[in-house]
Design goal:
By secondary structure, the chain is α/β, with parallel strands linked by helices. It has helices at about 20-40, 40-55, 70-85, 100-105, 115-120, 140-155, 170, 195-210, 230-245, 245-255, 260-270; strands spanning about 60-65, 90-95, 130-135, 155-160, 175-180. The chain has two domains: about 5-210, Rossmann fold (3-Layer(aba) Sandwich); about 230-270.
Length: about 270
């Protein structure tokens, strides 16, 4: 069977003869399919978000497992959760086939190792409180198949994200998200439309799980950490927005309360 992500795209067949603008126009029009595919998958994404929020509520983890582009996207999403939502680095965890070196250097053969998928997941000491989310554009990478099977054996809730409906990881997981983005602009280059869709889905899962577990007030990041000048200024601005205080008073409230927005708000309201 030839999966949709591996088929040739008739609309971009002559991209090698196109002008620069025509190339960009082709790519941009195809990118719209990523958004459409995610929209169609929203009912399935809902289920995974709710399961992910439940995992966090019971002190479990969201564990992403991916290969290649999927793994790199997962690493980025996991790394951004602690500074954004104030959670520990062990709340959202990403495992990439090939290890850390695969983040910056392609390690395409790593996705074929069934044994490493199991081994790398077990290193994380998984428990039934965790949700393990396998991410694979084709949906057939042995590394991801193995990780999901291992997760199920250990009582974890499992989810699969792919761009092909009839794939191996969809047969294993409790929940399946399929973003059918179709043939790529460059045949088989799933870092494009399929990768776009995966990025959006992971953003949705982690963001909504954080919102559902109280890491957001209205639409503001109240659990931020002041890890740089920009975030420190943003925290002051959030306190100003919520309390109506000026910049100096807002900064003093944060300084006096360990730069915790919730603590600063409580202290102000107690006065």
């Amino acid at each position: 069977m030839i999966f949709n992500t591996e088929k040739r795209n008739p609309l971009t067949k002559h991209i090698d003869k196109a002008s620069t603008y025509e190339m960009l126009d082709m790519i941009n029009k195809e990118n719209l399919n990523s958004v459409i595919a995610v929209d169609r998958a929203l009912p399935e994404i809902v289920k995974v978000v709710d399961a992910a929020a439940k995992a966090i509520e019971q002190d479990g983890r969201i564990i992403y497992v991916g290969c290649g582009t999927s793994g790199r996207t997962a690493v980025a999403d996991a790394a951004e959760c602690p500074p954004t939502y104030g959670v520990g680095y062990d709340t959202v965890v990403a495992i990439i086939a090939g290890g850390e070196s695969a983040i910056t250097r392609a390690s395409e053969g790593a996705e074929d190792s069934f044994e490493k998928g199991r081994e790398d997941l077990l290193e994380k000491k998984i428990t039934p409180k965790d949700i393990v989310i396998g991410i694979s554009a084709s949906g057939n990478a042995a590394y991801i198949v193995s990780a999901l099977k291992t997760a199920k054996e250990h009582g974890c809730v499992t989810a699969a994200i792919s761009s092909n409906k009839q794939c191996k990881i969809a047969e294993i997981a409790d929940y399946t998200i399929c973003t059918e983005t179709g043939p790529e602009v460059i045949t088989g280059s799933t870092r494009m439309k399929a990768g776009n869709a995966q990025k959006m889905v992971l953003n949705m899962i982690s963001t909504c799980a954080m919102v559902k577990t109280g890491k957001v007030y209205e639409n503001m990041m109240v659990n931020l950490k002041p890890t740089n000048i920009k975030l420190r200024a943003r925290m002051i601005g959030i306190v100003m927005e919520i309390l109506g205080t000026d910049e100096a008073e807002s900064e003093k409230l944060l300084v006096d309360n360990d730069f915790s927005i919730p603590k600063a708000i409580s202290a102000y309201k107690e006065v």
